[in-house]
Amino acid sequence: MQRIISSHLAVGNRLTTSWLGKVERAGFPAVEIFCARQHFDYRDTLQVADLGHWFRDSELKLHALHSPMFTDEVWGRSGPQTHINITERAKAERIQWVDEIKRALEVAETIPYQYLIQHLGVTGQEFSEYAIDAAFNSLEELHIFARQRGVEILLENTPNDLSSAERLQLFNSMTHLKLNYCFDAGHANLGAGVEHEFEIMASRIRSLHLHGNNGQEDSHLFPFAEGDNLDWAGTMKLLRSRPGQYPLLLELRDPGTHSNPLDEAKRVCGQLEEI
After folding, report:
1. Domain count, the chain
2. 187-236, pLDDT tens digit by residue?
3. What is the CATH number of the domain that holds 194?
4. pLDDT reported for residue 39
5. Collapsing DSSP states into helix, strand and coil, what is residue 107?
6. Are 63 and 32 in contact (CB under 8 A)?
7. Buried b vs exposed e over 56-86: b needs ≥16 C-beta within 10 Å?
């Protein structure tokens, strides 16, 4: 599997061409960029243009963008009005969030990329048919907008009642969109389990998010780190069952204990591949 790293590893800092250069020198051929405005401000035409110039001269490819989750620069801590949610029942609010995600899709006009990774709802959100209907209305519009820019929207399994593997399958069965998936192993470990969610999602998985946790907190640990109880041997066996369908993509949080987090991520990739 092709190795890819998510810029979530450096999400607390402004995304720079210097950091991307380090990714390239670490041997990763592609990157996923996390749309968080303190990190990558998809609204900032100057930052987008600067990165666009760099990518045009680089061998490093932009595999995907992770759709924005908040409109502020402090992970939504400035208030619930900053939490992007395409399942909002109120049409005016839903249109506001769809327009926000369109700004991230417009990045493809400057920096081509293949996938936009999208959440359904927010953390802890309960299931309702109203939310499914709202999500369909949002994604129908976003799907067309994305396709016009050469981007495919992938739905990610996340820790809420709208986005378990079963609920994503239900959403696809109730709509004509038939969207593919980004399988998040760490999130599956917080829910019904990696094997259970993988088997449900398998045929539609087009990208991955690999990170560890203790089964209770979405901590985005480096695989095999202290506190990580995810069964990586079993996970890699599952992932190898569909060769060529998706890359080996790490979505990690920097614990501040590694002198070079990118080198550690590269080492972990090798460890996973050796299983």
Report:
1. 1
2. 999 999 999 999 999 999 999 999 999 999 999 999 999 999 999 999 99
3. 3.20.20.150
4. 98
5. helix
6. yes
7. eeeebbbbbbbbbbbbeeeebeeeeebbbbb
